[in-house]
Amino acid sequence: MNRRTLLASAAALALPALLPGARARAQTPATPVPAGETLKVGFIYVGPVGDGGWSYQHDLGRKAIEAEYGDRVETTFIESVPEGADAERALTQLALAGNTLIFATSFGFMDAVINTARKFPNVKFEHATGYKRADNVATYDARFYEGRAVIGTIAGRMTKSNKIGYIGSFPIPEVIQGINSSFIHARKVNPGVEMKVVWAYSWFDPAKEADAAAALIAEGVDVILQHTDSTAPLAKAQEAGVIGFGQASDMANFKPTPRVSSIIDNWAPYYIRRVGQILDGTWTSHGVWLGIGDGEVEIGEITEAVPAEVKAEAEALKAQIASKAYHPFTGPLKKQDGSDWLAEGAVATDEELSSMNFFVEGIAAQIPS
Amino acid sequence: MLRLEPRPAAPAWLELATPVMAVIATMIAGGVLFALMGFDPVAAVRTIFWDPLFGPAASYSRPQLLVKAGPLILIACGLAVGFRAGIWNIGAEGQYIVGGLCGAAVALAAYPAEGAWIFPAMVLAGAAGGWAWGMIPAMLRNWFGASEILVSLMLVYVAQRLAAWMAFGPMRNPEGFGMPGSRNLQQYPSAANPELVAGTGAHWGVVAAALAVVATWFLMSRHIRGFHIRAAGLAPRAARFAGVSPAALVAFCLGLSGALAGMAGLFEVAGPGGQIIDSFGSGYGFTAIIVAFLGRLHPLGILLAGLLLALTYIGGELAQLTLQLPAATVQVFQGMLLFFLLAFDTLTRFRIRSARAMA
């Protein structure tokens, strides 16, 4: 994939035995970094830091580390690293340059991370959205579908044509979770709502995203959700007088409308915590999947274009998700083909979510195969 | 008004001097650019051109030069043959992708069988795939007069979509939890293309690149076909009178460059890359065009130019790492290299006259 993601953290929890290196082995005891010594932390990004979306948000996380720890850390990054052979070389060069903690921020870096980690057992690796782990390789991911529930609620309330459009990147579990989650919550507040889905087959392609938005608007859509990173759909929405949401970063330039809110990836709290654990010697490998409650998924300011009662409703849902009082995938839910999925009150497991390959009942679009 | 007027005779040494001048001009212009961006220009140029060879981590980066230069040289050798004949294959990137897909398809079909026949079969499939992709523009040109430049270029985008479809569909790793991307061929011994001698970076693709240098040198300077190719490029009408079939030449050149690009793709997917992903093409096919011209379309020149371009890749990464130079720098560098080369070439063959002086 052109970049990143895919959630299989949970799947990996279920099969440690299958994955090399994930076997239970005695952890080598870590030692704290002595005071006065600088910890070098490296990053590789799949896009340029100026992409305004995915890599940009990871780079904000890197800057947050510097702001938090000052002289105790030194960070470097390599941007626009293609997945495959180049990733392994970039990781190796970071390790050779003395970085002892390395963040690899795209799904497609997975095998390169595992290969490099084998060569440098004393270097710790953090891999975003992957599912292969080792003693010195941890994985982390974000529950974007929690944020999608909140903006889906706003979308359901705001549409007048009862047609919501969704620009999908690739038909992979993470994106399908997002489509399902926003549809479920839009329909909950507006039973007449329909969802139209267009696949861009890219994470970042302004021209294609603009075309997708224009096609949706032509079909009568008046609220556009996007799982692609450029601001092109918002620009199209502005021209047509419809609304949309910021994706990955806040996209605040389009406030107060067409951007009525946004879903933001905030990696800073996790990065600060993990660097802290290296500094005090308590870092161990793990696989985590964090959401709104952990501050990793944020909802950007809901602007005055949204009526106060809708805003209050969205914020209440967000608070419920944050406190874990409510799970966005709670039954009764049926699959698109009408078969039962979750019984009344049942909650989707992480394993089910991380391999999700179906739409829920009521979505007319098909998942391309 | 300025106009270009052919020089009576450009001295032969200039032909060899212009690539060197282009490299020096690139270093100077690059240095000025870095200074304007607020970086130390000397440190930046040294990091890109010197440190990968002799810097503190050179024992790692030197073999990496071969990894990066191998596919560039292999592809550029094929392109240069066509360019000599005036046949412009701009779509080596697509042939590279299709070659990788075809080679990987053989491996994935054979999985998990082990056997000595698997890797050679993959190489053949890779070459055949690239050849077939190159034959599309060749046939369209021969039959309908379609421009091979446009057709081969547009087929790159078709190949990219094909790779994406394969990564998400038929070639998806069945044990990959529904994630896109094929099995990793590095972990499949019969299909893997590993380092032949540890620490050298040399895999079968690097060996093939070396053989391609020798073979194209032989073809171009010792074989009648090479003579036909050069004749067709220099004097197409004369070549036709000499019995050279333009259609056969188009098919030969696009087929050859396609097959070499396809093999490069196969060696990459079985070796350093490891798997088919949707972004499998990573620009080797386009950079190889710069390599071919910088190397004066001569096999030995291509060898040197390939290593130089590899140096800008590795050095560019190092410069990002140590100086936090933006990644786009590498592309700017490579672009300037081609730009200066073309400029110096033009100025050695033509002189600039003002139109008024002529009147």
Question: In percent, how much strand structure appears in the residues of chain B?
Answer: under 5%
Share of helical residues of chain A: 25-40%
Distance between the termini of chain B: 11 Å
Strand arrangement, largest sheet of chain B?
1-2
CATH architecture of chain B: Orthogonal Bundle
Under the CATH scheme, which class of the largest domain in chain A? Alpha Beta
CATH superfamily of the largest domain in chain A: Response regulator
What is the CATH topology assignment of chain B? Answer: ABC transporter involved in vitamin B12 uptake, BtuC
User: What level of helicity do the residues of chain B show?
Assistant: over 70%
User: What is the CATH architecture annotation of the largest domain in chain A?
Assistant: 3-Layer(aba) Sandwich
Q: How would you name the oligomeric state of the polypeptide chains in this document?
A: heterodimer
In brief:
The complex is a heterodimer of chains A (369) and B (359). Chain A is α/β, with parallel strands linked by helices. Chain A contains eleven helices and 14 strands.
Describe it for me?
The complex is a heterodimer of chains A (369) and B (359). Chain A is an alpha/beta fold and 369 residues long. Chain A has eleven helices and 14 strands. A six-stranded parallel beta sheet of chain A has the order 2-1-3-4-5-11, sandwiched between helices. In chain A, helix 3 packs parallel to helix 4 (110-119), helix 5 runs parallel beside helix 6 (173-189) and helix 7 (206-218) runs parallel beside helix 8. With 359 residues, chain B is mainly alpha-helical. Chain B has one domain (40-324): Orthogonal Bundle (ABC transporter involved in vitamin B12 uptake, BtuC), CATH 1.10.3470. Chain B has a two-stranded antiparallel sheet. In chain B, 50% of the residues are buried. Chain B has helices at 12-36, 41-49, 51-54, 58-84, 92-110, 118-144, 148-168, 204-222, 224-234, 236-241, 246-270, 284-294, 299-323, 328-349, 355-358, and strands at 2-6, 350-354. Chains A and B meet through strand 2 and helix 3 of A and helix 4, helix 7 and helix 13 of B.
